[in-house]
Amino acid sequence: MAHFDLPLDQLETYLPALPEPEDLDEFWAKTLAENSVLDLGLTVEPVRNGLATIDTFDVTFAGFGGHPVRGWLHLPVTRSGPLPAVVEYLGYGSGRGVPHEKRLWACAGYAHFVMDTRGQGADTPDPDPATGDVAAPGFLTRGVLDPHRYYYRRLYTDAARAVEAVRSHPAVDPSRVAVTGTSQGGGIALAAAGLVPGLVAALPDVPFLCHFQRAATFTDQPPYVEITRFVKLHREHAATVMRTLSYFDAATLARRATAPTLFSVGLMDRICPPSTVYAAFNHYGALRGVRPEHKQISVYPFNDHEGGGPDHEVVKLGWFARQLETTA
């Protein structure tokens, strides 16, 4: 394992052109509007978690197309008044797990919602309209020949609806909701930051789903290699694939974000190469005037895709507390 991407001084100024379809904003406005008229169908049921300081609730809400999406809502047992909330999205191939598995933000005194990932976790199926389409194994090329049928259209919409669901809970202060996640979860957090107005913060760690054009040709590691394998077999679809991906590039959607952000990056990360992370960071908020002092990135020079791990969690907790102080 060694540094293989651009030197750090070049990463810090790396600002590649990101291809944007002319109808990108219209595409997402229409997608979200079509789903916003659907009843949220929110159910919140208490569950036993074996923990003395955290209450956990099994949540179901209507995501894309009204499909039921599951999640865990964790709340501190001792609480008063509406709480700031953190919505967490998950890494590639994983679901919400068991109730006590992810609880950091609730331990710190916040509401913490862990969204299950459709088709990837055990609890949320993905009614797939792309059934019968050609695709490589995995999720990255599922429905990739049509942006309307692409898997991440459904997942990004779920992410936006999750914020809506959390904001509707009486224990949550709807004006102080943040998004976070690692790898795929970090990419989803960036997409949510660009699609959902009024977030108080975005905390993406070693984000996936960024700068597809570079990632697909720069790394041979999964999951990005799914794109390569697909186009290798279906050369005639190469341009179509890249056009579809341009609607879902988290670096592009992040240009529309307004919330302060804290990124993390591992400079030896071969799964999400540093240049793809910096493309998202350097473009973050560019269309909405996010000031440089509201953007921070923690760099871990000798780390791979684990990024800063538990050490970075300490950084995140301190940074988020400071953000809340400025908005109090």
UniProtKB/TrEMBL annotation:
Residues 1-319 form the Acetyl xylan esterase domain. InterPro entries: AB_hydrolase_fold (IPR029058), AXE1_dom (IPR008391), CE7 (IPR039069). This is Cephalosporin-C deacetylase. GO terms for molecular function: carboxylic ester hydrolase activity. It comes from the Bacteria. Substrate binds at Y92. Pfam families: AXE1 (PF05448). The active site is at S183 (nucleophile), D269 (charge relay system), H305 (charge relay system). GO terms for biological process: polysaccharide metabolic process.
